Amino acid sequence: MIVGICGPEGIGKTTIARALHCRLSSSFQLSCFMENIRGIYPNGLDEYGLKLRLQELLLSKILNQNGMRIDHLGAIPKRLCDQKVLIILDDVDDLQQLEALANDTNLFGHGSRIIVTTEDQELLEQHGINKTYHVNFPTIEEAHKILCRYAFKGSLAPYGLQKLIKRATKLCSNLPLGLRVMGSMLRGKKEEDWESILLRLENSSIPKIDAVLRVGFDSLHENDQTLFLLIAVFFNYEDDDHVKAMLADSNLDGNRSLMGIFFDISTINDSMDISPRALKRKCNLQFLRIYNPRRDTNVRIHVPENIDFPPRLKLLHWEEYPGKCLPHTLRPENLVGLNLENSKLRHLWEGTQALTG
Predict the structure, then answer these.
(1) Which of 97, 261, 317, 353 has the fewest CB atoms within 10 Å, i.e. is most exposed?
(2) Domain edge (last residue) among 92, 115, 134
(3) Domain named AAA+ ATPase: which ranges (predicted)?
């Protein structure tokens, strides 16, 4: 059985899907939550390549084996035909994604279930999914309670703030995501602060919900803004403990030097030579992620054997790393994450390297 959850962005589809996964997963032999399919899996591949890549990711997640590779589209029924599985496909926006991952529950064992969240009702209809739950906007009363839950940690506003609550709810257009951001932003603030912030939002020239989210970000401490951006770019949907380990001792206080590089090499039209000293002066660089989402074999990057890696590097994620070994300047004792998927490495490095500080 395939079930759809449909509604606008920020309405709570993912929250509902996560709650279902948490409640139901123990009843299945295998389960997985494939989050943010729209954002993580680009459409740059041809149809067959896209489906192959998506199925690799599904198998990697559901079998808990990172970096699985398959060479044909029959791998899923071969591995999972006798397994009762629960699969959540979150934020689907393309029919090919459904054809790759939810074409037929008969690919899996008896009793398997697939839940799809999307903003596009027509997408579900095109795929023949007729069991759909439409997530509606909360009523005005419910919206007030959602905002109060985040602003006051209760369902009711203190006496005298009811008019401000109504104004704040109207600015959010009853959208749960906006209500959560608004409530969290206003928590602990005085009545005059509420008035100032709401007036600023009401007079904003950009769409109201965008203004709410923007003010929510702006209200963060400078260090928290940096943390927000690092997590959004490098560690979105990563395990909490992994993120904490990555960000420990990152020294954010007053630090405005470059901390991370996120580079899509599939955007390169011609070959590119990286200078040996390209990273040397970036002393605070801690997160380096170079990836090739289209798995384009025509991409050519030349990395010198004597390239200088920065000393504080914690994350080295370099898909298709072209070197035969890692340079001696890499300090492995500082690494928390290392991913050299599809690299040309023959050995890690020349000589002996210390693995602990």
Answers:
(1) 353
(2) 134
(3) 2-141
**Could you give the dihedral angle defined by the CA atoms of residues 253, 256, 259 and 261, in that order, rounded to the nearest 10 degrees?**
150
User: Kindly report the CA angle at 311 between 306 and 314, in degrees rounded to 5?
Assistant: 110
Count the residues in the chain: 357
Q: What is the pLDDT of residues 105-156, one digit of tens each?
A: 778 889 999 999 999 999 999 999 989 999 999 999 999 999 999 999 888 8
Q: Which tens digits make up the pLDDT trace of 16-45?
A: 999 999 999 999 999 999 988 876 655 456
Q: Dihedral angle at the C-alpha atoms of 325, 329, 334, 336, nearest 10 degrees?
A: -30
CA distance 238 to 240: 6
44-71 burial: b if 16+ Cβ within 10 Å, else e:
ebeeeebbbbbbbbbbbbbeeeeebebe
Q: What is the pLDDT of residue 43?
A: 46
Residue 350 domain-assigned?
A: no
The answer to whether residue 125 sits within a structural domain is: yes
Contact 285, 279 (CB under 8 A): yes
Q: How many domains does the chain contain in total? A: 3
Domain coverage including residue 335: 224-339
- Average per-residue pLDDT for the chain: 83
Looking at the DSSP bridge assignments, the partners of residue 87 are: 32, 114
CATH number, domain with residue 152 = 1.10.8
